Amino acid sequence: MTRGAQPGVAGAGARGAGVGPRKGRSFLGNLFVPVCEIDVVLNDAETRKPAEIKTEDGKVEKHFLFYDGESVSGKVNVSLKHGKRLEHQGIRIEFVGQIVTIVRRLSDLVKEYDLIVHQLATYPDVNNSIKMEVGIEDCLHIEFEYNKSKYHLKDVIVGKIYFLLVRIKIQHMELQLIKKEITGIGPSTTTETETIAKYEIMDGAPVKGESIPIRLFLAGYDPTPTMRDVNKKFSVRYFLNLVLVDEEDRRYFKQQEIILWRKAPEKLRKQRTNFHQRFESPESQASAEQPEMILLTRISSAESKSNSLM
């Protein structure tokens, strides 16, 4: 799984640290007792903005926030304990984005300092709306429209559903925001699907000509940005899923992909443009202004009754 941010770790370590033997203590006792304390201090720690991240056990941690392209500067304090001496072969500073395996020699001293990195995005001025007609021939024709195809993480999705033909007894209608995380390559590819938002937008049977408004606030669901083929191994995609349920509990649905992106804070919007990445949406290659008629194909089985607006 994936989280909207990924932590980075700045670490300092003394390689080959040795401990001199002392009288009255065994060799193994000296071996496992640290002879010094390592502390990392950032230059702008007093003014640096913190950010929160959820751990695997659901707890919330706060760390300093850095943006893509910024420099991390500070100092490392190595304090010897009273009466101790330290032999080492140099001090190395590393910036680690993700730790897969930790290999640590018996006598190495390591200090890890957690950071959070947000990757910002910017998009062209063109942001076409999504408009499409779907339905079942001679039974149900609806037209749905979303005001944009790309939304920032605190944006509001605005749209409407217009019923052109209703000959099916619809019981209710709901809108879902679905996140799909794709990991791996080739035959080892796995996809995890999560419904992060769902709410009912209509209760009761609609009539021909009725229009149902849509308004979904993304800020309340804490989504992450859309990601495309990160290192050719990882992607995050979002879909709006419109679901209609009739009186026989048959479900009719249509998924439409949208792009989510992280907006830069106000103070960074006028700074260097190389803080940002450009992302070209696949929807930009197709016109979203010309609605097309799509046949809703019914898929039913003994265990599940559902209909996909394909």
Automatic annotation (TrEMBL):
Residues 1-20 are annotated as: Disordered. Gene3D superfamilies: 2.60.40.640. Residues 10-20 have a biased composition (Gly residues). It comes from the Eukaryota. It holds the Pfam family Vps26. GO terms for biological process: intracellular protein transport. Belongs to the VPS26 family. This is Vacuolar protein sorting-associated protein 26A.
